[in-house]
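User: My instructor asked us to take a sequence, write out its structure as tokens, and then describe one feature of it. I'm not sure where to start. Here is the sequence I was given:
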Amino acid sequence: MLEKNEKNSYFDAHFHLADCIYDGIIKDEFPQDIAACTCAHSIEEWETGEKFLEGAAMQIFLSYGLHPQSAGYIDIKTNADFLEQLLQNKKLSAIGEAGFDYFNDEFKAAAGLQEEIFNIQLDLALKYELPLVIHCRKANEKLFEYSKQLKKIRAVLFHSFMGTPIEANSLLNRGINGFFSFGKQVMNNNKKVIACVRDLPADVLLTETDAPWQFLKGETHTEPADIKKIFDVFCQIRNERPENLANQIKQNFLTLFFQNSNTKS
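Assistant: Let's start with the prediction itself. The structure tokens for your sequence are:
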């Protein structure tokens, strides 16, 4: 079981295995000292990741979701049916990424479809009692609009949360069993992210890479191993001993993903 695996020293709450494979970042194996949750957003991505993980000794938790940026481009019924098939076969530890993205006019134009696919995944998270991984960009008001529904879900991961500590605490105070994960934004002077990492309770914080995405200026990608750099910056921001914060993040990761979870190990 994961909690007895001493090899796992770092915990990545969110990355994309298939995209790392496509980009040649992951070729033969995943770092053995990292436990992570990978999100797939298409049947092709799922099948790519599943093939890679066959027989592999890795602590990889699996999530599948209809990404808000895919609204208007995917066959909703096909992907929703595939998602529920995975759930029925108990192959998932979480559902997502699901959520809202109003970053540009193109995404805003698909707001209705984004809401449709979000509600599908929200209902499935309730039905199958699994965590929901949320992507939300320029649309934090939707999180509060749906707070009563999110409160009913076993756990919610606000991946790459871009709100303030006040907003994060407000979501928690509404009864949501929420966790907030952050990646390389802690390394590019993002004031909101740094404030969240510094000020939020330690028992709701998680590290993530979003690999191969969310890379810094001058980089071409983010690697799973970069979780170690991100963790080091977390320690600096919170002025905490690495062993203490590592134990807390491990417990947060287990609380979020491990109950009734499916993992390739």
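For the description part of your assignment, you could build on this observation: Confidence is low (pLDDT under 50) at residues 1-5. Try explaining in your own words what that tells you about the chain.
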